[in-house]
Specification:
Chain lengths: ~230, ~525
């Protein structure tokens, strides 16, 4: 079996006396879609933040693309060098930038040449179906449009790993279904490797190759979902 | 109760200002003549340069410190914050005095170097800008920190995933806090152009010193009035812009923002601590050390204190009395503001900020105009009561703002629950609302006490003959008493100002942990 793209090796994270993530080990291979499922407060968001480098593990190791990026109390590689896309639960769209400017900021950070940025902006916005909204600020977008803008921002830097933290939690059920289907087809079209965190079993069933259930900071069960079944 | 408070507010704060504004209508012709001569233009240039320079330099020092306090791990942060904020509470002329002793023609630098090399710089516009920046930078620092804490850290994290910390700071964080930083800079501008003590001490001619000369040396009241008008207009305009920039945020802050320290900024710990230590050394430690060194030369501390006993006693009593009266009135104004509807609230904020921005000399001249007349009003003129009026006029707005911010934290549902339970309005206030804002009440009292204890610009105009307060005493003996004597009094002034601050820090820690 090939080396996993992402590996968490016995990772533990504590806040004071509370253990948020307790000895978690997890392998994610290229092209896989792993869903971490669990009730609020079970530590699933902390796992994402650890992968992104926004938190430091107290114990254990995190490997990304064959390199150790974090190790027992130290982050060896800062978040922006990990080539990630991150969709936050509250989206965290920058209120002072338009959709286009946000994408430009991301590409500028990744040193994408100016000449290429406009083309890529068009491409990605078409992909998430908000190609007419590049000049809007976040507060001028509907809930679903904001969601798409956040997804575009996470994808425009061509990340090697996409992290999603309950991105659909604030949407009504119909819109949620639509966006879920869109994300599913995006995953396949772009062959994305994703780690998706949710408390919603429907989300999990619809998007996962593998469902990892968490409770009180630890992994309880892991279920493989047959690819064919998921596609139906 | 609120009605009485509003009436008091109109009488004490509104009336002197209204008087000054009315004056501007009647003196148009003389005004034009006064403003157009070359001397006036120089005055205008100096004032504008002093304000702009101070606003820029103070922001340059304060904003990065505020950023560090909000985002970077620095050791002893709560204590450090209070120490870094302390210089703004020292009366500016005390800091100015220390710099004169350091860099004046007979100062420490001159005596060490063996000749006078820098006094030309000390007594200059850049000198005054430097001193005032070292006094006012905490305002920028605190405003920046509060604004930073209000920014969702998630917004920065979303950027940190793709960009380096420096780039995130420049492109995401700074634009988000820019309105607050700009508003603080504007407020500093107003305070700098309103300052009387420092330019007076460093012999920089600006509107405030000119007003004082016209009034105290030439006894030309109408000239003094006319001279204050450009200053008044400028202050009102700039303060209104600042208040509008910040809008609702002046009073509304979200609570419990948690730890906003991002691990991405960890690497900056050392640099931030070093910068804070540097600023602290220059803005607080150095002036106090210089004053102490000068004061040590005094033959008998007891004699100095004895000589100014009346002024010291007066200052303490009046400041304490002033702080009490101001807090008692401001609490109702603050309550009215906190419970006001949005639109009205913004208007009230602008009004409070504008009134606080009225330069002290303008307040002084306005109070004289209103109260120096025959009849009931005149009875008060020439007594220490005038000083209480100064404190009310100058500090009621800022006290009301501080208390409004505190009262906003008490949910309206608490009052509704008390009302449903059968408690009357008065009982609800005393038993439910006020106990929840006791820290804000104490902090406001201390703030007004400190401000009142250091008040010079308006006091020196309206005070009855004799040595009414310590600042007036210090300011008047600078010219003819030995430096050691003056330094000892200035040091005493600093100690009185800084000790309630230490007390407040202790009380805050005790009440928080309980």
């Amino acid at each position: 079996m090939s080396l996993p793209f992402l590996r968490l090796g016995s990772v533990t994270k504590r806040y004071g006396h509370r253990t948020a993530v307790d000895d978690v080990s997890l392998d994610v291979h290229v092209g896989e879609s792993v869903v971490i499922l669990g009730p609020s407060g079970c530590g699933k968001t902390t796992v994402l933040r650890l992968i992104a480098g926004l938190e430091r593990p107290d114990m254990g190791e995190i490997w990304l693309d064959g390199r150790v990026v974090a190790q027992a109390g130290r982050n060896l590689s800062p978040p922006h060098e990990r080539r990630l896309g991150y969709v936050f639960q509250d989206l965290a769209l920058w209120p002072h930038l338009t959709v286009g400017e946000s994408l430009d900021f991301v590409m500028g950070s990744a040193a994408v040449p100016r000449t290429e940025r406009a083309k890529r902006t068009r491409e990605i916005l078409t992909l998430v179906r908000i190609d007419t909204l590049a000049d809007r600020h976040p507060h001028e977008l509907s809930g679903g449009e904001q969601q798409r803008a956040a997804l575009a921002r996470a994808l425009v830097g061509r990340p090697q790993l996409l992290l999603l933290d309950e991105p659909f939690s604030s949407l009504d059920p119909d819109l949620r279904k639509t966006l879920r289907a869109e994300l599913d087809s995006l995953q396949h079209a772009l062959e994305l490797t994703t780690v998706y965190v949710t408390h919603d079993r429907e989300d999990a069933a619809a998007l996962a190759n593998r469902i990892v259930e968490m409770r009180q900071g630890g992994i309880t069960t892991v279920r493989e979902i047959a690819r064919e079944k998921r596609r139906s | 109760m609120i009605g009485i408070a509003v009436a008091a507010f109109a009488l004490f704060c509104g009336l002197p200002l209204a008087y000054m504004l009315a004056q501007s209508g009647t003196t148009g012709a003389t005004y034009a003549a006064l403003l157009l001569d070359a001397r006036q233009r120089a005055l205008l240039y100096n004032t504008a340069a002093l304000g702009t320079g101070t606003a820029l330099l103070a922001t340059l020092i304060g904003a990065p410190l505020g950023l560090a306090l909000a985002r970077v791990v620095v050791p002893f942060k709560p204590a450090l914050r209070i120490a870094l904020a302390a210089p703004v509470l020292l009366p500016p002329y005390v800091t100015g005095l220390a710099w004169v002793y350091l860099g004046g023609s007979a100062g420490i630098v001159a005596s060490v170097m063996g000749r006078d090399v820098i006094s030309e710089w000390t007594y200059s516009l850049p000198g005054a800008i430097l001193v005032l920046s070292l006094v006012f930078y905490p305002l920028s620092m605190l405003a920046t920190e509060v604004a930073m804490r209000r920014v969702e850290t998630r917004l920065e994290e979303a950027a940190l995933v793709v960009a380096s910390p420096g780039r995130v700071l420049r492109r995401i964080t700074l634009p988000l806090v820019a309105p607050s930083v700009a508003a603080a800079a504007l407020v500093i501008f107003v305070l700098a152009v309103s300052e009387f003590g420092v330019p007076g001490l460093l012999r920089v001619r600006v509107f405030t010193t000119e007003v004082f000369t016209a009034f105290a040396a030439l006894y030309d009241f109408s000239r003094a009035t006319i001279l204050t008008l450009p200053l008044l207009g400028l202050s009102i305009l700039v303060a209104a812009v600042a208040a509008l920039l910040v809008g609702e945020r002046l009073v509304v802050t979200r609570r419990g923002l948690g730890s906003a320290q991002l691990i991405a900024f960890e690497g900056w710990s050392g640099r931030a601590s070093a910068a804070a230590a540097c600023v602290l050394a220059i803005a607080l430690v150095a002036p106090l050390a210089v004053l102490t060194r000068e004061a040590l030369a005094v033959p008998s501390v007891a004699a100095v204190v004895q000589g100014s006993r009346e002024a010291i006693g007066n200052s303490l009593t009046l400041a304490a009395l002033g702080a009490t009266v101001v807090t008692l009135i401001a609490v109702w104004l603050g309550y009215a503001r906190a419970r006001a509807r949005r639109r009205f609230g913004v208007v009230a904020d602008v009004l409070f900020v504008v009134l606080f921005a009225v330069p002290s000399t303008v307040v002084g001249v306005g109070l004289i105009g209103v109260w120096n007349r025959a009849g009931v009003f005149g009875r008060l003129y020439g007594t220490d009561g005038m000083l209480l009026l100064v404190y009310l006029a100058r500090f009621l707005p800022v006290a009301a703002l501080a208390l409004a911010a505190g009262i906003r934290y008490v949910p309206t549902s608490h009052e509704e629950a008390a009302a449903v339970g059968g408690a009357g309005w008065w009982r609800t206030m005393i038993r439910i609302v006020l106990p929840q804002v006791k820290l804000a009440l104490l902090a406001t009292w201390i703030l007004v006490f400190i401000l009142a204890f250091g008040e010079l610009g308006a006091s020196i105009l309206v005070a009855p003959p004799g040595e009414a307060t310590l600042p007036i005493r210090i300011y008047t003996i600078i010219a003819n008493a030995p430096p050691a004597h003056v330094a000892a009094l200035a040091l005493l002034q600093s100690v009185v100002v800084l000790s309630p601050l230490v007390l407040l820090a202790f009380v805050m820690t005790a009440w928080r942990t309980r």
